[in-house]
Design a protein that fits this description.
The structure is a single chain. The protein is an alpha+beta fold. The chain has a single domain (8-130), classed as Beta Barrel (OB fold (Dihydrolipoamide Acetyltransferase, E2P)), CATH 2.40.50.100. It contains four helices and nine strands; from the N terminus they run βββαβββββααβα. The glycine cleavage system catalyzes the degradation of glycine. The H protein shuttles the methylamine group of glycine from the P protein to the T protein. Keywords: Lipoyl. The glycine cleavage system is composed of four proteins: P, T, L and H.
Length: 131
């Protein structure tokens, strides 16, 4: 599994790429692999206000329906509309083409609650060992 070093990760398997005062978010390689083939994505709407740890959409796959939890608070500036017609992009390219939304960072301090790639990889390994 791939966990790019430049990203931050939430315990709910969402990644964050900070770009100035904006953050791009998506699901991790681990999440998409665990879910299996993704068949539908419920995206937030541009203008929605997200609160950290609140649900902001969902991903439907053969194995499960998974809620998406906001890794950060802020306003949704863009959504990846391509996912509506081609949700499988999240399986093929979770870190680039499979991004979900771009969010205006409201509180950069929230970034401190997210994990580094190494910490996230360790937490995933522990989860797999428990199963």
């Amino acid at each position: 599994m791939d966990f790019p070093e430049e990203l931050k990760y939430s315990k709910e398997h969402v990644w964050v790429r900070v770009e100035g005062e904006r953050a791009v978010v998506g699901i991790t390689d681990y999440a998409q692999e665990s879910l299996g083939l993704i068949s539908a994505v419920e995206l937030p709407s541009v203008g929605d206000e997200l609160e950290q740890d609140d649900s902001f959409g969902s991903v439907e796959a053969r194995k499960a329906l998974a809620e998406l939890y906001a890794p950060l608070s802020g306003e949704v500036l863009e959504v990846n509309e391509e996912l509506e017609s081609s949700p499988e992009i999240m399986n093929d390219d979770p870190y680039d083409g499979g991004w979900i939304a771009v969010v205006a960072l409201r509180d950069p301090e929230e970034l401190k609650s997210l994990m580094s790639a190494d910490d996230y990889a360790e937490s995933v390994t522990e989860t797999e060992e428990e199963e």
